[in-house]
Protein: Beta-glucuronidase
Organism: Arcticibacter tournemirensis
Amino acid sequence: MKKNSYISLLILVTSLFSRISAAQENLIQNISARSIISLNGRWNYIIDPYENGYYDYRREAFDQSKSGTGGYFDDKKQEDKSELLEYDFDHSPTLAVPGDWNSQVEKLDLYEGTIWYRNKFTASPKQGKRYFLYFGAVNYEAHVYLNGKKLGMHKGGFTPFQFDITDRLKAGENSVVVKADNTRKKEEVPTINTDWWNYGGITRDVFIAETPASYISDYQIQLSKGNMGQIEGFIQLSGAEKSQKVTVEIPAAGIKTTVKADTSGRALIKLAVNNLEYWSPESPKLYDVTISTSNDHISDKIGFRSIVTKGKDILLNGKPVFLRGISIHDENPLIAGRARSEGDLRMLLSWAKELNCNFVRLAHYPHNEEMVRLADQMGLMVWAEVPVYWTIAWDNPETYKNAEAQMSTLITRDKNRAAVIVWSVGNETPLSDSRYTFMSNMASHVRSMDNTRLVAAALEVHRKGFEVIVDDSLGEKLDLASFNEYGAWYWGGTPKELSKYHFNIKYNKPVVITEFGGDALAGFHGDEDTRWTEEYQEALYVNQLNMLSKIDGLRGMTPWILADFKSPRRPHPLYQNFYNRKGLYSETGKKKKAFFILKKFYDDTEKKYNIKSYGASK
Ligand code: GCU
């Protein structure tokens, strides 16, 4: 092959590749506010445990072959009776999207592997517009094809991704095929072992968004760190005409400003503000914000609040606050499965509100964007986390890249949500030098992307007798002394014995207990020393709250957990039946006795802090 045709081929391949992978990187901000074609609905599916639709019998990937064809992504139809075709999406059953496959088809309840999804849709792309195919989340590894051509691959079961399909979208019928694989692997994030159900599939919204050729791809508009009198941020333009004038309007705050984006499409804003109504759980004020250029505009609802720590205090808008929280999994307990709709999400947050919470820990992975927007509206502060959970492959650079990418996407997606006050880099990760390096790098990466929020993790603790010692060196890198403790459950001892414990916490930082709790089977009653009874869980809460209240730096908690949830690690036939039963609500929505203990504690704490902040109970 002549030298220059070899080079042009090389350029072609690399640009193709860079276009394929790059398309995922620049997540478009607030994309669901664009004009969209929803692809939610029934998708045909093929179960493929041997990945027969992806690899040939020599385990060579079809989409890497010379022709780039041969796999199920071709979405072929038998054209003549003698043709051999061993799959047929049209006659294949369907699954609801968004939705995990486990809760929809009984034989898929414990299925881990590949399932192919196919959706046919009609489009009429317009000249001068751009089109993006967007996925809210696919668990875990997704290979995406449009009209038989590969768009790219995405890893991470809880973060959104999109592909630029402008020059791939056809007028008329299109076929999108997704290979979704939820196989657990040691080097992935999360790794093999977790305490939640490995729901697979296209679990969140799918749509095609339309933008002008030059469009507003990203923006951050928040209060400056530690300065409640200044709004600061950026607007990023993408497409042909990057260097344009950009206008930001916040009518209700009397703000209208125009700035010029530079040649890379970046425009910075810094605005002095006064008389802003700050966002807080008591009054979750969201302002209508519009950003516009000569040929594009986008509107959003944004709240403004400041969150800092001062010694052992957490200050929200300059006032001490106690984080009255609860931990939540992204699961609808009533119909066990990933939350499927805004209604499911609102139900979970309303249950937290009934507990008189002002804070939720969205464990242990990025929840649906809609969940965070609802928290913004409903007045619930949010702890957001990536699934760096238990024993990750700390020494594997690919694992770190994956974890950091999930963190970047989470921050990119939710950075304009006032509700989000904490970015968490992980949960219960065992001490080691490589873990320390991994987690420290994650923490500094978060700060490099967003310095306006707190950075934390569920730190490791250890015990000497009844002394609980919190001196995990990772704590130096973080803003909170936050940790999980399971007195009277995994630590043994009965609830009454909790009073013997005392805490030795190395850090002069706010203490947030990110988990405590115990299992109770709703409706199972007995004395308070009998495990699995509501009385045991109730006594555990009474004594835990007494014990924790003695910690002078205690400034918040997110007990484990709002509702019973499915876990493959919980097989006890009488008490668990594959449910973790530490919920304060059962999987049927019944409040357990411990619910009322925590609610009373939060009502009292709220009064105490109102007096602290406002000199009188509100
Ligand atoms: C752990 C973990 C949770 C788990 C809980 C439990 O600390 O962080 O994910 O579900 O404890 O064992 O119930």
Q: What stands out?
A: The chain has seven helices and 35 strands.
